[in-house]
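In this supplementary section we document a worked example of the pipeline. Step one takes a protein sequence of length 304 as its only input; no multiple sequence alignment statistics are reported here. Step two produces a three-dimensional model, which step three serialises into structure tokens for compact storage. The input and output of this example are shown verbatim.
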Amino acid sequence: MKRRDFIQKTAASSALLAIPSIPLLSFADSAIKHITILHTNDVHSHIDPFPADDARNANMGGVSRRASLIETIRKENRNVLLLDAGDIFQGTPYFNYYGGELEFKLMSMMKYDLATLGNHDFDNGIEGFYSQMHHAKFDFVSANYDFRNTALDTIVKPYKIFIKDGIRIGVFGLGIELEGLVDKKNYKEIVYNDPVETSHEITRILKTEEKCDLIICLSHLGYKYKDEPTKISDLNLAKQTRNIDLIIGGHTHTFLDKPTIVKNADGIEVIINQVGCFGINLGRIDFYFDSNAEKSSQGRAIVV
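The serialised model returned by step three reads:
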């Protein structure tokens, strides 16, 4: 199939799958503001659904189905952010042949708002990633990678601010240490900085200077490591930091049916979610803000 025909076919909506709303607070109060966060991670260039004879994931996933789900949710609530926690690249022949062009084009068609970088996003080197960025109609954030002396310097920002229905949302990115995971020639002069120290500084900026009502971390650190319990992970990051409301994770391909709740350094609850890999699930977190800016939330994974 020609690439143009494939893209057109993929973009076409399949039958819409209705997603029920998840009310937490009474909407009789018109002051209630509802923000929906949709997210993916570790899609790894999986464009098509798994085949019907696949041993584990038969008929699951696929960009067209995900696009239909997203479209349905956006009709239900206009205040939606669509985010990705990295490892967009590598895993199917689509990446081997197109080098990431197709992934970025399709994510742009689905109107992703923001993404961070995973280790596999450097599989074609910094230059390979950079060469495809013009196909992405969304931005990338990473706060703990120092990109000076690389093609990504000043292009990948530490964080980005969104305003939805008057709610200020700050989203920042964190990447895993590349040494030992990625060939040095592929990441070159990128410097990895401590995620906890970085988070302290970034969340201070987002909370006190940017006046954010909601702070989200797009993390490619991994959910947890059983054999290395003290290794930095989403669970450990949450416990050691402040002001993060939601950590959207990646890297470890962890399937969570519902988010994990961890108390941070101040004893305040942090939501952690990750939805596995390969586009099999779409994560959804709904936040509700009352007239006093107090927030509640509920989340789940939606099978694609």
